[in-house]
Give the backbone structure.
Amino acid sequence: MALEVGRSIAPTFADGVHLAEMARIAEDSFVWSTIAGCLQIPSTVRPEQIQDHIKGKHLLLIIDNCEHLIDSIAVAVEVLLRTVSELHILVTAQEPLGAEGEHVYRLTPLSIPPPDTDTKEEALTHAAVQLFVDRASAGSQAFALTQDNFQDVCAICRRLDGLPLSLELASARVSALGLQGVIIGLDDRFKLLTAGRRTALPRHRTLRATVDWSHSLLNAEERIFFHRLAVFASYFNAAAARHVAGPDFAEPWRIADLLADLVAKSLLLCEVDASGPRYRLLETIRFYALEKLAESSDVTEVAQRHADFVAAIVETGARDWVTAPTEVWRRKHQSEIDDLRAALDWAFSAGGDKRIGLKILANSAPYWIQLSMHDECQRWLTLALATSSSVPPEEELALRVALGTSLSWAKGPVHQTGSVWASACELAVRLNHAEAQLQSRYGLWLFFLRCGEYQQSLAQATEMMKLARAVDDAEALAAAQRIVGVSWHFLGDHKQARSLIETSIAWYDQGLCSQPFRFGLDQRVAGLAFLARVLWIQGEFSKAFEVASASIAGARALDHACTMCCALAEGWCTVNALAEDRDAVESGSLLLIKTGAKYGLGFWTAYGEIFRTWAEATGAKQPDDALLRLISLHKDIDLDPGYSSLVGDLLVRAPGAASFAQIDIGFLGRSEELNWATPEFTRIRASLQALPDGPATELSLNRALSLAKSSGAHAWEVKIAIDLARLLINEARADQAREILGFAFSTLPDPTGPLAEQARSLMAGCGPG
């Protein structure tokens, strides 16, 4: 870099640019003679006479690789600058000289592509990738960056932190090992990265030699501190450094000095944000320091302190999760996941402390959920629970609640979700742990609801409401009222459902909620989403869309991923699907999929795919396999096909009975109990019968119409009346058709929208009456 600067500005200096290379100079006594030599001054000239030979000259002196002779070079620089007015000096070193008039420019690593880089063109906008590709191409004519291999190149650049020397050494191995071989080799990078140029300085020929050189510049105290810092897998602040790496230093201020010394020597990176300075070791430097720490006698003690520290910050992260917006939480806590992993790796190792590992896991659910690591969450929690015989009951309970929470949003109503929540609830009751009981009842309510077991979901929600009242928990009571209302909606009692949901929303509207995400998402937004669904079925179409929009706006204001997914799926996409607005459903489903995938919310992602498949099937092309795909998507997450009307809607649209002969359509009428869509499913079954026996179809539709009237489901009533009227018109019974349509239309609270327009148009076709 210094040489390139010198070349680029050489025309500016009438007397040229001169390079004094100090890397091979081992003794302070040779500093002045080396400077004299590069300035073409006879070596016999004494140091104090050098300035006399360059007085009046306008030149740039580059002194390269100064860190091992820093004191002597600092003196020389100050002397020269004081006596030669036209002299400019550019120094390269791993730390500042501390000389008078010095201006420091730190070279940061090359820019690296983020994990979500999508194309090779985007990857090539980052300097690290450019350097790697340039050097790898020079070493192998067969190598080229392609759409197939750019992710591997990006991964290598990230693993090497964008360090130019590391990238050059790694790229030299591509011709022999290939990209996958280089990635595997990075696990033992100090052996892999040994392909330096023969013309390079000895300390630049291998990565270990480079880091050894830097390490040799540290004093004994700095080395101990540096080695201990290696336990941090990510960012840390001064307080964390003191707790983990420096509790035995007598003076607290000494930690700040040591951190500053390591930053000055380029062994530690420092960034300043709103919370103050924070530090981290580049991965390559950290690997080296870990090796040194492993050789020391205090490695176990340092690892223990680090695990204790992680347990404390993870507990804070768990508390913040129930109150902080998604992006706020991520900015504050997402960098902690690497330290969480490192602490768990140690805690569950042969020489670790399993007790502290269990404590960390008990508070870890927000990290796995927010950072899209649910498989890893389940692996760790399952490991911990597999040894539950030695886990204290309170910690086992926390682990089960954490696992249930993760499974609910990551996997949906799969068998494991219900099993974990059931065991958590049983243990919570036995331990008389109120909060865990509330969480477990909520989890079981959600599980049974999604499975289509609406009576069981109501039972769990009712138990939650009783407990909330018993412990005088107003916030939990409001949440319980909402979910009891939702269960009643799914059981077909829309009036009672609306009353309970609106009561819950009114409590939240008072601004009394202190933990908006206590049960995984914001209850007010969720209440609005389900209320929109209830309103549509009751025939209040305009109000349903207003409430669905308010739910989206509320979720966006909170900036909480799971809340946004609920607003999209249960509110916006559902009511627009009921209204057959495929464009609105398609756009909403794409946002739902994107949000769910970004945050690892697998259930919401799958639900988004269900809506997207429906939107495709109702479009112009209507794929032949859409119905089968829709059923398959439901099965993948064990979601009841009757949870929405989407499957039933596509059954009606299917080209013939052969299209659904292999599909279990029992959900259309599998129970004598009235549910949220029994009138609609009865209508669909009647249309699927396709019997030449008109009276049988008419009888089914009349039964559906009666069910819709009795449950106040005016939207279903109009849909059924339309089908029945068409049947009657075909039988030349237009007067009866008009009467049925007229009554259904007159009961509709909101005679606007596509459904009302269909009824109005069909009535007009029946003739005057």
In short: The chain has a mean pLDDT of 86. The first strand starts at residue 17 and ends at 21.
